[in-house]
Design goal:
The protein is an alpha/beta fold. The chain has helices at residues 4-14, 29-44, 56-64, 102-110, 143-152, 189-197; strands at 22-25, 50-53, 80-83, 87-88, 94-95, 115-120, 134-138, 156-159, 177-182, 202-205, 207-208, 214-218, 223-227. The structure holds ribulose-5-phosphate.
Length: 231
């Protein structure tokens, strides 16, 4: 849904896009707004960019918007990645994966020289995990074993359901399941990310620690910019 905050955040990220850039294109409703704006600006002329998508959703939206697509095989280093988030803390650590695209998002976002997060201001939290369950992508064969191990680490794991006339579990673009693990709070995101990634069958964890350079958090009247310290 195009809330004023999402639109303002997307506009702020658009102002960073320069002619000739190869962009990482995230996933979600805020990025969808960004893609549409980017397509409109490119169509006006004077801005030739290419995009590396992080999901079928962003690939199809970018194609519809007239943005040429490429891959990390062609461009292993991207100029800029723009992506959404489910939670952002003051240190610019993120929870992502609300759209089940966390694995490709982490690969693409980490390949960018600069990674910018766009979200409405409600995504800013004091401590990660306070509101949002942490998405973990798990191979189907490891569903029960990985969920048990996530439980031992203090999370309350729930297998995400499919949506929109899909019975059974949500299947990611990579053919895996998503386990949403509710923690009371995640005071040590880097430590938890490591512990979860050691669980056999865990493909990726929706904790993006120390990756984002800037977050644009949109509100009704303006946009708040947060920069990672030391960058
Ligand atoms: C998808 C994501 C999204 O970027 C995240 O869920 C935010 O989405 P939205 O902009 O719709 O709030 O991580 O996997």
């Amino acid at each position: 849904m195009a809330s004023a905050g999402k639109v303002k955040a997307a506009e702020a990220a658009l102002s960073e896009v320069k002619d000739g850039m190869v962009l990482g294109i995230g996933t979600g409703s805020t990025v969808a707004i960004f893609i549409e704006m980017l397509g409109r600006r490119a169509a006006k002329g004077g801005l030739r960019v290419m995009g590396v998508p992080t999901s079928y959703q962003s690939a199809y939206l970018a194609a519809e918007a007239g943005i040429p697509l490429t891959t990390l095989d062609e461009y292993p280093v991207l100029d800029l990645a723009v992506d959404g988030a489910d939670e952002v803390d003051g240190g610019l650590n993120l929870i992502k994966g609300g759209g089940a695209a966390l694995t490709k998002e982490k690969i693409v976002d980490s390949a960018a020289k600069r990674f910018v997060v766009i979200a409405d201001g409600s995504k800013l939290v004091g401590t990660l995990g306070a509101k949002f369950a942490l998405p973990v992508e798990v191979m189907p064969v490891a569903r029960r074993t990985a969920m048990a191990r996530i439980g031992q680490l203090g999370g309350e794991p729930r297998l995400r359901d499919g949506a929109d006339r899909k019975d059974g579990p949500c299947v990611s673009d990579n053919g895996n399941f998503i386990v949403d693990a509710k923690f009371e709070a995640i005071p040590d995101p880097a430590g938890l990310e490591c512990r979860l990634k050691l669980i056999p069958g865990v493909v990726e964890v929706g904790l993006f620690v120390g990756m984002a350079h800037t977050a644009y958090l949109g509100g009704e009247v303006g946009v708040k910019r947060l920069d990672r310290k030391g960058r």
